[in-house]
Amino acid sequence: xDKKDVYFWLIFFVFLILIxxxxxxxxxxxxxxxxxxxxxxxxxxISEELVNTFIRGYAELRDNKILIASDELNTRQDLNKxxxxxxxxxxxxxxxxxxxxxxxxxxxSGEASISNNIIAYTLSESENNEDYNQDNDLKDFVLFYYNxxxxxxxNTNQQVYSRWRGSIPTITGTSFYEHKKGIxxxxxxxxxxxxxxxxxxxxxxxxxxxxxxxxxxxxxNIDTKEIKIVDSNFDISRGFVIDNNIIIFTIRESKxxxxxxxxxxxxxxxxxxxxxxxxxxxVTKQKMYNGDYLAFDYPYVMFLVQELNLASDINNDGDFKxxxxxxxxxxxxxxxxxxxGLSIRTxxxxxxxxxxxxxxxxxxxxxxEKTYSTLVxxxxxxxxxxxxxxxxxxxxxxxxxxxxxxx
Length: 407
Hints:
By secondary structure, the protein is mostly beta strands. The chain has a domain at 55-231.
């Protein structure tokens, strides 16, 4: 190879590198839509589709939109145009139009939630080197929200407690997972944003019990700008969920020094709910266990109980590692357990339980007491969720199936 050839190939490779760099800087959609007809899997005479969005990130579905926190490093795109790939950026995907909207908002180690075209999220002052609530420090997570219709960003100046400071952010619609498992400190429902606060951080005795040691729930009304408190300690290790203006959380009897379910001890974690409309708080007798995470689709509080806690091998596979869904109706105060023997990767809905079995996506119709197979393979699935008639899951990228009989 002579000098001319060497120069030619050198110039050629430099040219390719420049083109690649230019492509990386352009506003390419970080997704593609690929739909596959998977047949009539719910027996309603209408075929369903498996939709692969090719979007990477953590997700929450509410009001027919999937809110997504995308890691720029995973998507290999500078989504907020700040010349790095270090951010966690908010997007939302519309199930009706199949369009993705990139908000360009970097939430870092904050949290986010979507409802009624409002996206609530928290920002870390220390990560962004900005005193958002003007209290002369850079230690806080502060609550913001974005209005999809008006495109306005509002700083509420409210400090939000997060025990996950510096960890991977979570999107929290169905009380996701402990940053992958089911615990949230920020949720939204229509015009209400619910969040947790630390009395110690605020240096205030919010519930007037003579100390500033409590972690409490506050809620913010977007229309009136009012901020109110739920006057009850809650078990922060399990987070909270909201639907129909009712906040569901758990309390520890040991913290309250009271045997609420009259079983002779004060060791239980009990489901508790607060009605925003009436201002009433009720501690139920329904016990929760370690490892549970909450989901709520009014009137059902739904969670998984491990076989170990039930002292029963539900699916007769020789171990106590599997989970059984348990549904508690806050109106009738009755509970129901389903002996399905599932993994933690299970999506709980009012009438559908979506799960993986032998690497196949299946779902159980509660009303029919029948299991259906989607025939969709789920090798290395990250998470399965069910909301508003849609099973959505992460398998590297976000995919979903909308059951036509449940829309």
